[in-house]
Amino acid sequence: MKSYYKGLLICGLGLSLMAGQVQADTLSDLNTQKANLTQQIQEAQTASTSKTASVGVTILKEDQSGTSMMQQYIVSPASVTREANGSYTVLLTILHPEYWQEFKVNGADVTLVSDNQVSFTVSDITALQTCYVHVAAPALNYEGKYTTYMSFDSTAAASLAQSSSTANLDELNKQLEEVNQKIADETAKASTTTTTSTTSSSQETTTKATTESTTKSSKESTSESKASSNQGMVWILSLIIAFLGLSGLAYWWKKRS
Ligand code: HEM
């Protein structure tokens, strides 16, 4: 009679471990889904945030009657980056920097990036940008202060301005929210069934789709691989326990009859 109870107990323990493991597997699947979604969101975000292109630049005279002399002193195309906030950063190479005393775009001084490179920000790449230059070549007894207009190649500017579809990003964020909800539900369930709650709840993190989550997700994947090898061990252990329990039961049954 004693061995019957023992068998029953061991068998029950093994079976409950297995049941808990099924739940842990669901959680591990959900966590894998979450890691995949987070990665996809990051990729979609990088694709939609910054975009750099070579864009042709034309400098027009103040009266806009034709190309300005200033054109000879800049390099076209320039490198234009559409930033996450929707503004544009222009990187422009200037020739004979020694002649340039002042250079303003839309009223603001440009930033000197290197000896012959300046950068400035514009809010509308398709508009004409007002430039002010103060030029001086003392050796040639030449000095001038001029207003000109900078125009960016309309085709390149338009393709840069066209924001990549954010519909996909919205959809991915929705899916991530659903997976996070399921994980929360499963974790709540697991904590009431006691046996496997330790393996599952340690994996739960409410990762938001931000750029900083790159490091986070790599951490997650290492903890996931550790967790999956743990799960394998628990499966084997629970099978052994259930087997021992069943053998105990069989032995007791044989002895009894
Ligand atoms: C040593 C070099 C330079 C010389 C000898 C020179 C000479 C001249 C002369 C004679 C004019 C008046 C004639 C005209 O309207 O075409 C002029 C106009 C002008 N220059 Fe220069 N320049 C020199 C450098 C520069 C530089 C480096 C810039 C720009 C950064 C510049 C920008 C302009 C502008 C904007 C005008 C007004 C007319 C226009 O928009 O084409 N110049 N320059």
Automatic annotation (TrEMBL):
Signal peptide: 1-24
Region of interest (Disordered), residue spans: 185-225
Annotated localization: Secreted, Cell wall
Residue ranges constituting the NEAT domain according to the UniProt record: 48-160
Bilayer topology: Peptidoglycan-anchor
Keyword Transmembrane helix: yes
Main localization category: secreted
SMART domains assigned to the protein according to its UniProt record, in alphabetical order: NEAT
Keywords for this protein: Cell wall, Membrane, Peptidoglycan-anchor, Secreted, Signal, Transmembrane, Transmembrane helix
Bilayer-spanning residue ranges: 232-253
Amino acid composition bias (Low complexity), ranges on this chain: 189-216
Source domain of life: Bacteria
Name the record gives this protein: Heme-binding NEAT domain protein
Species for this entry: Streptococcus loxodontisalivarius
